[in-house]
User: What shape does this take?
Amino acid sequence: MQKIQCAVYVRKSSDRGLDQEFNSLDNQELACKSYIASQAFQGWEYFKTYSDGGVSGGTMARPGLQTLLTDIHNGKVQVVLVYKIDRLSRSIYDFKSMMKKDFEPHKCDLVSITQSFDTSTAMGKLTLNMLLSFAEFEREVASERVRDKMRATKSKGLWVGGVPPLGYDIQFGKLVPNETEIPMVKAIFQAYLDSSSLLACRDKVAAMGIHGKAWTTKKGESRGGGTMTANIVERILKNQIYLGKLPNKSTGEVFDGQHAAIIAQDLFNAVQEKIRANNNHIGSGYCLGTALLHNKIMTSDGTVLKNKVGRRNCNSHRRYRYYYGGGVSLPMGDIDSIVSDTIKQFLDSDMNCLGDDKRISFKQTEFSPDLIKPMVEKIVYYNNKLAIFINIADLGYLTPFQKDNYMNSRMNPMPCHISEDGNYVIIETEVILSSRTCINYRNSGGSRDLLTKAENATMLIKALGYAWKYKQQYENGVGIKTISAKEQRDQRTIYKYLNLAYLAPRIINDIMDSKIPPHINLQTLFAIASKYEDFEEQEKDFYRR
Assistant: This one.
């Protein structure tokens, strides 16, 4: 009988009682393990327990849950057991998202041991949605009660709890000025007025030996007191508590506190005015800073792509810069790199589309990153191509980059043509836009989402090389686990590469000759190889016939 690996997920919203010898998490785990034992006749086998203590079910940012989802993706878990559905999530959206993206594609089942329903039937789905709706309602009602209590407490000028800000201590539930820390807070405010930026202010604060708030927990543990970051400095500079106020973020109200102010209103206002003046992207996700090709990239219908900053998901702290507009999103770093490389290649080319005078002017020009902005008039993105328009109507912008006795002697062939009005040289570069970072680059420690046609071909050829290598090892009796450990790739990835070894000969030959359709990248090739065994079906999808 095939063994079914069963994982147990337990969660408790607060950390109250977790230090007890037998707590709520232990009770949930014991009940789920007993249920697994009762299903041993079906091949169920306990695998692992994933625990999140003191974490709300309204968020996906839970270490235990994320580890569980990773193991589901890696095929380690076939059944997940919870005490109740709301232990997994109290959000209908998050729950459905997990079912669709994590559980169903990897054939993993979910079992609630205290709630019996079958999600394969319409009534079962209705029951599940009703349970989740009540769980989400319960969480939102509890949150509203907490917010109302906090607002009422602040309206009376009382401290609602938590770590006090630098400059204050807590005595009998109230904020009391700390005479030792007050000069530090005033020094931070004055340092910002004397600095050019938050980073410069942070450096001055560090040089003065000022650290973050240090405190002792009820258990006697020392916390805080670390080096201040720019974010911590900014929070201090914007904190209205130093004016004797208590802001309530949920409603935007500001109440008079019962504690004494330690910063003068004039000093606070001067700092806020300087913060606003230094902010060059107020109220916008668009970054109007130093993007190389700002307002120069557009789609074929004329929509201009703006440079923007964002995150790939709400739980990520890494920020990405890209050009966005008209439903098109292009990674900024890759686009800038490709355009820069293309300009270098143009200066090293034979420029056979230009007359002698203009060709000589370009050949006397030495490449510099500062040359790109005046040289590139616009870029049109269409059909997996970048059409780069180089300004040749007035070459006066080349003068700062021309040096005495400099002449570029390289004459590499490069296709180009002149626009109908004669004002631009147009160079077309084919690119492959992938929705995900390619495995080859990810394993190399890089991060490229946009590849030129040549880079994409190189990546696919390397992938075929890996496929034939793994195939030869597998046919010689080496197990998948051994190959996976040796190559430092998970077994699922090894299988994906193995599938490539069984692609249609025509597809393999065209990849080796770099005759690759524009829509094909490593991810789509993996999908074709795993979806079809028949050569004709593979070719139909590869060539989109």
About this structure: The chain has 19 helices and 19 strands. The chain has four domains: 4-138, 168-278, 297-433, 452-543. The CA atoms of residues 350 and 411 lie 4 Å apart. The mean pLDDT is 83.
